[in-house]
Amino acid sequence: MANENSSLHTAKRNKKDEFYTQIVDIEREMRHYRSHFKDKVVYCNCDDPYVSAFFEYFTKNFEFLGLKKLITTCYKSQHMDLFSQNDAEQAIKLEYSGGASNSLPTPDDIGVTPLEGDGDFRSQECIEILKTADIVVTNPPFSLFSEYVAQLAGSGKKFLIIGHQNAITYKEVFPLIKENRMWLGYGFKRNMAHFIAPHYEDTASDADHREGMIRVSGVVWYTNLDHSLRHEEMILVQRYHGNEAAYPRYDNYAAIEVSRTQDIPADYDGAMGVPITFLTKYNPEQFEIIGATESEGTGFSSGLWKPESGVAQAAINGVRVYKRLFIRNRKLVTSEA
Ligand SMILES: C[S@@+](CC[C@H](N)C(=O)[O-])C[C@H]1O[C@@H](n2cnc3c(N)ncnc32)[C@H](O)[C@@H]1O
Q1: 3-class secondary-structure state, position 151
Q2: Are 268 and 207 within one domain?
Q3: What digits encode the pLDDT tens for the residues 198-250?
Q4: Helix, strand or coil, per DSSP, at residue 144
Q5: Element (H or E) spanning 69, and its range?
Q6: Among the three residues 174, 201, 228, which one is the final residue of a domain in this structure?
Q7: What's 20's DSSP letter?
Q8: What is the model's pLDDT at position 78?
Q9: How many domains does the chain have?
Q10: CA angle at residue 207 from 202 to 213, to 5 degrees?
């Protein structure tokens, strides 16, 4: 019974992961990283070349980016889902080094080879391929995101991947963000994306509904490739001094509450609690990330929490607020405010 339950759970989880990125979204993000890709081996390790727009993007732009090689591997169940003709549960690999006579080569033009195992990104076979790569680019399974990021960060490889913004405070993810080993990319319009998902019921409102797709909000790109947005300074127009009532102190953290990123005051040199969406504007030369609320992980607040309060979620006058990151303005740090 336990086994039956766990295989049902796996089937459900796998299904939840079966949605596919649109090429326009890849093109829009990749535009900002061209210089990083010259002479590089790109690995897409959650990508069936027959369906993946990442495969399509990198083959189409192989010469333009000056790539050395493209490798894609595909998890066996990915094949089954969209292609009934390919339901042999075979995990596959494709390697392309450019030069196809057709400028838009198909997987069959290039040639796919079977993998020995199931194509799981965690398998030794795929880890060996990862070692040969320079940059990993994909949309990995959301349900395995923590494991996926932990493996990638441990590999020391460059990456550009899609994930949900909720992952920012996962215990495997947040330390990387705090230490500037991973940050957000340029991002999707309005922080949401439509993914190709023929088997899903879309719950988007009429205005946002697109046939054969699901709308997912809170989707972001995570990367450790440098880009110019990350060096743009946010212009701070609000002031704390003389306007203290607008920035209440938390009951249980030694910090002030800034409920909207655009309201970060220009003149406050202490710890400030901000929403996680602050990261879309984060410039590490302008701000330091001190931590996050203890509700996201023990020890995350770097000592700002008042444990005697007993409440881990940030609260103001007894009213709890949503997830918060704690930041400090690097340009103003003069005291232990
Ligand atoms: C969100 S989908 C994205 C697919 C594709 N990368 C894209 O962007 O269109 C994640 C894919 O990862 C595959 N997947 C699930 N578990 C995996 C695993 N353990 N190893 C490799 N791929 C996996 C799923 O089959 C699914 O197709």
Answers
A1: helix
A2: no
A3: 776 767 777 778 888 899 999 999 999 999 999 999 999 999 999 999 999 99
A4: helix
A5: strand 69-74
A6: 228
A7: B
A8: 58
A9: 2
A10: 30
pLDDT tens, position by position, 268-313: 999 999 999 999 999 999 999 999 999 999 999 999 999 999 999 9
CA nearest to 281, candidates 218, 236, 251, 330 = 236
Residues 211 and 273 in one domain: no
Q: Give Cα 193 distance to the centre of its chain.
A: 13
Do 39 and 139 fall within a single domain? yes
Question: Domain range holding 98?
Answer: 2-228
SS3 at position 17: helix
Residues 168 and 257 in one domain: no
Query: Which residue among 198, 228, 258 closes a domain?
Result: 228
CB burial readout 81-117, b (16+ within 10 A) else e: bbeeebeeeebbbbbbeeeeeeeebebeebebeebee
Residues 35, 175 share a domain: yes
Query: For 218, which DSSP code?
Result: S
With the most atoms of ligand 1 within 8 angstroms of its CB, the residue from 10, 75, 148, 196 to mutate is: 75
Candidates 15, 48, 77, 78: which one to mutate for ligand 1, based on the most atoms within 8 Å of Cβ?
78
Residues 319 and 175 in one domain: no
Q: Whose CA is nearest to atom 10 of ligand 1?
A: 141
Statement to judge: residues 187 and 135 lie in one domain:
yes
Tell me, what DSSP letter sits at residue 117?
S
- Ligand 1 surroundings by CB, under 6 angstroms: 17-21, 46-47, 52-54, 75, 77-78, 119-121, 138-141, 144
What pLDDT, in 10s, does the model give residues 277-288? 999 999 999 999
Looking at per-residue pLDDT, the higher value among 204 and 82 belongs to: 204
pTM for this model (two decimals): 0.92
- Position 13 scores a pLDDT of 44
How far apart are the CA of 75 and the centre of ligand 1, in A?
Answer: 7
Q: Is 13 part of a structural domain of the chain?
A: yes
Tokens read off for 71: 């490798």
* 33 within a domain of the structure (yes/no): yes
Residues 79 and 115 in one domain: yes
